[in-house]
Amino acid sequence: MAYYLHTRVKNMKHIQINSESMTCQSTNLAELLNEKGYQNATVATAINGNFVPQQNRENTLLKEGDRIEILAPMQGG
After folding, report:
1. Containing domain of residue 17, as a range?
2. Tens digit of pLDDT for each residue in 16-52?
3. What is the model's pTM?
4. CATH number, domain at 30?
């Protein structure tokens, strides 16, 4: 049990999402979106100021200290 808890804590990353500090277990951007409840949402994403297209999210690995922006389209006029 102690090994399992240590492994989970060890794999946690400190990141920022939309300027809010938090931790995550995700290894890539697609997993992070699922972890945070955005799996079916239409959103734009960026890491450290660089746009990440939807087709690249699974291949975009997360690192300690990354700054992620998740932006939903706005409607109105």
Report:
1. 2-71
2. 999 999 999 999 999 999 999 998 899 999 999 999 9
3. 0.82
4. 3.10.20.30
